Amino acid sequence: MEEKLKGIVQRLEALQERLADPAVYADPALMKRLSREQRELEPIAAAWRAYQKAQGDLEAARELLGDPEFREMAQEELQSAKNEMERLEEELKRLLLPKDPNDEKNVIMEIRGGVGGEEAMLFAADLFRMYAMYAESKGWKLEIVNRNETELGGIKEISFVIEGEGAYSRLKFESGAHRVQRVPVTESSGRIQTSAATVAVLPEAEEVEFTIDPKDLQIDTFRSSGAGGQHVNKTESAIRITHLPTGVVVECQDERSQYKNKDKAMKILRSKLYEAEQAKQNAAIAAQRRSQVGSGDRSERIRTYNFPQNRVTDHRLQGDNKNFNIDQIINGNLDPLIDALVTADQAQRLQSGDGEM
Fold first, then answer.
1. What is the pLDDT of residues 299-328, one digit of tens each?
2. Residue 200: strand pairing partners
3. What share of the chain is helix, strand, coil (3-state, %, to 5)?
4. Model confidence at 348: pLDDT above 70
5. Are 42 and 16 in contact (CB under 8 A)?
6. Are 127 and 332 in contact (CB under 8 A)?
7. Span 161-174, pLDDT tens digits
8. What is the sign of the dihedral through the CA atoms of 49, 54, 57 and 62?
9. pLDDT-derived band of residue 156, with 50, 70 and 90 as boundaries?
10. Above 70 in pLDDT, residue 341?
């Protein structure tokens, strides 16, 4: 492990030299790739240097133990260095955990109103607003692909793309069933109702990662329509693509251009098929070890938004760590909740031996 860490430090130094080369600035793609690798390696190198310093402090304290005049001070420094080395050892294990290859990708998200009628559709609209506000706070770009609204402003279903660095790494734990408990605006008697919506999060797949045979596609055009059947435009610009071998259907009607709608629909379809292929490959691993933060299946209830109690509870977390302020969460301040899920995932992986020193 020590050799691996030394290799990381050497690689970081080589990266820093390359990034100082003016020729690298002339190639934006290379610059982006090298800068991303540098950002990934810097925390590991910093933790390793701190570990080496603590190791040096430990040896210095041991040398002082033989001197009666400094023995008490040396014992304190010895214990302090030991504690620091233990802490840094755990941090290095966490930092060296294998990275999810999809973490840096853009994401495609789908939200659907579930059980609960109109209230479920209104909750789906609240969830979309929550993710839109979170994306804005991160400086990410959000683009709607397909939206099916109700007359009261609810959402039957919506598909959208979020583009930004690390988007998938932050949003991948959002897949699953989200439940809400509150008094609906449509409820005159003031009774609390329980409704649900489902969220799916897919890493955006590039063409080079997953190719689709055009012969496997059935492409239909139709007119875009808004809530209540009101036509958004009078041309058949909306696109429906059916992947015949799997039966996966994707629609896009948010753009006025048929070409743009087809391009977006193909992006969604490619990502859905890519995810299905990945799920097939990971099935054997998932059967052996179920992650503490859940499988990401849309049928799995992951979170409850309890408005009367001003609380959001994530059911994959433990103890007091699982409850959050509902006003902050529903207004897009998702970082505390996501940080807790990331930490739980890392703890589970460490426990399973994925990050041995």
1. 678 999 999 999 999 999 988 789 999 999
2. 110
3. 50, 20, 30
4. yes
5. no
6. no
7. 999 988 999 999 99
8. negative
9. very high
10. yes
pLDDT of residue 23: 87
DSSP states along 70-109: THHHHHHHHHHHHHHHHHHHHHHHHHTSPPPTTTTS-EEE
Tokens of 317: 């977390």
Listed in sequence order, the residues at least 6 apart from 138 whose beta carbon sits closer than 8 Å to its beta carbon are 164, 167, 170
Structure token digits, residue 247: 């039966």
Cβ–Cβ under 8 Å, residues 159 and 108: yes
- On whether the CB atoms of residues 19 and 35 are closer than 8 A, the answer is yes
Residue 280, both tokens: 């097939």
DSSP 114-155: -SSHHHHHHHHHHHHHHHHHHHHHHT-EEEEEEEEE-TTS-E
Q: Are 198 and 316 in contact (CB under 8 A)?
A: no
Using an 8 Å Cβ cutoff, are 295 and 345 in contact? no
